[in-house]
User: Fold these one by one.
Assistant:
Number 1:
Amino acid sequence: MAIRTSRAIFGTAVAAFVAGGLLLGASGPAAAQERLDELREQGFVRIAIANEPPYTAVNPDGTVSGAGPELARAIFKKLGVEDVVASVSEYGAMIPGLQAGRFDVVTAGLFMKPERCRAVAYSEPDLCDAEAFAVQKGNPFGLRSYEDIAANPEVKIGAPGGGTEERLALEAGVPRDRVIVVPDGQSGIKMLQDGRIQVYSLPVLSINDLLAKANDPNLEIVAPVVGAPIYCAGAAFALGNEELRDAYDAVLAEMKESGEFAEIIEPYGFSAEAAKQVTREQLCAAN
Ligand code: 6CS
């Protein structure tokens, strides 16, 4: 689903032209220039988002916000590309969509992990967060870790399809039939309220946002999830577009230095310092 922004309209034909041009473009530094010229000409860059505030959000008027898109919009504007046009995607479909040329970059808070680092060209880190659970008030099943969920056959966990929380639950030994794929945050909260799942897992800032909006005294957060890493995301470009990624990174580094990076992400609850203390190389290193 392509989301109209204030200034740009998604054009499939145009997108196909750009994608085609990308595949046939030059290599090396000329590639970044050629790609940027195409994007400048087009007037927008196509981003993938999940609509999971505060990482990414589609507003009632159809405009796009959230830390990821706001940061990308600022960086691409400095690169001469006026706006972003967003498509909402499930996390598990973002990398295939990038590889198929359906979007130019994923700016959804896609956490860096070695297997993903092999499949995309990540920018340097931008949005860092721990994992969390939304549970019934009083945490009746005493859930603090994904292992706790695995140990209790009465507990079903909801998580985004192809997302990190689904993977963490499966790796902790939760059987597939007790890991329920949930399409979006509102559905996750509803399923928890209806007792169809006993825990819903997303990053801390996302669960906090959902619980604040649900305003339900019968729900509470468990954070951080014991034993789960603190992750950092980055903007993800298709392999072969490392030069464009490098151009993006150069601006990101300047904005980290100037304080502009903090001004954009910290109002959403993210720590600029956390992202500045770690590198793509460290996060992508096979564990
Ligand atoms: O990168 C991921 O897989 C996770 N990132 C976010 C921002 N939310 C959930 C998702 O599983």
Note: The chain is about 40% helix and 20% strand.
Number 2:
Amino acid sequence: MSPTASPSATRVLVLNSGSSSLKYQLLDMGDGTRLAAGLVERIGEESSRVVHTPLGPDAGEKRERTAEVADHDAALKAVAEELSKDGVGLDSPELAAVGHRVVHGGLRFSEPTVVTDEVLAEIERLVPVAPLHNPANITGIRTATALRPDLPQVAVFDTAFHTTMPEYAARYAIDTETADAHRVRRYGFHGTSHAYVSARTAKLLNRDPSEVNVIVLHLGNGASASAVAGGRCVDTSMGLTPLEGLVMGTRSGDVDPAVVFHLSRNAGMSNDDVDALLNKKSGLVGLCGDNDMREIRRRIDAGDERARLAFDVYVHRLKKYIGAYYAVLGRVDAVVFTAGVGENAAEVRAAAVAGLEELGLAVDAGLNAVRSGEARLISPEYARVAVAVVPTDEELEIARQTYALVRGDRGADAGE
Ligand code: ADP
């Protein structure tokens, strides 16, 4: 029998396990408060870093320390210790469930899912298509299960929101048998963010999500665009892996696949070399040596040509996806920017929609310049299409989906 949540328990621990990091948040879904957030970095290295921020009503100071954290098990124990110091330990009966971010759910998982041995085996079967992420996610689930075997562990998949893509958007035009045998198709990622932000945008517009068509631009270190029609994803820019699509911090996004054969035949590069080139030494870093948009802006202001070109390549790709998804949707109600670059870089937002007035798109310079952590419109009154900034909140969305599942009321509103 799978574990069930106790009826009075309202807290959800959200875990995002990377290969050498563990990020966490503790949320109380009863009153909607966030109790703590933090991360353990450089797990397995000589000196790991533990950063814990208490967030409850009588929250104390942020605590930061270095420690030797050998593995994810030790990392979660360090998290449990920090939470205990704040009186919100993981042994509390108020903890209802643990919600895990799982990057790849393939075609099988279109909804958050309580983890069983069979579910874990399926997540493991997807490792060949998510070699960097799924193994770390599995470790996180195993570690949390060992600590609280009585609690439901819920997997919330980055790919889930995109499983509604029509087959013609998800298929690559390659030999069908080869594609199917090796699960080669477009899955999309950042789905939790696209789901949250598109629903939140409908709220911002005072419209029902089923009525609005939205283009979401999630621009963090990783970046992806999605076309969302009436709350359902109909296309997204990432594909088999998070490499496809927009220009990112260190990833190339779209390139001619022949670049790979060309480099392997003519530059003596191995598959792993090209993999590292496209994932780690490309994008903004490859173009100008920096992946932080703040630094790139600073360099542009100082007259740096390489930084200028990197910015222009980034924005040009963004504009192409806005146009493509406009065509896919037919009618667009809002274009919305989110994540580190989308929420903060006013110049990127302005440049991405510049010249698209014929499509009904415009940005009000004054509104765009305002710095705020709130969801907001930045388009002028007269614009036919709203342009918005909506801060993403993947942890809240994972906690909501997890809580709704263990409470048995899935289908609860995703927006705020
Ligand atoms: P991740 O994909 O790692 O979650 P984030 O969504 O946190 O990334 O975005 C990180 C990126 O956001 C940084 O690399 C930087 O380029 C950008 N960024 C953060 N703050 C600002 C800012 N004030 N102005 C411009 N860019 C910013």
Note: The chain has 15 helices and 14 strands.
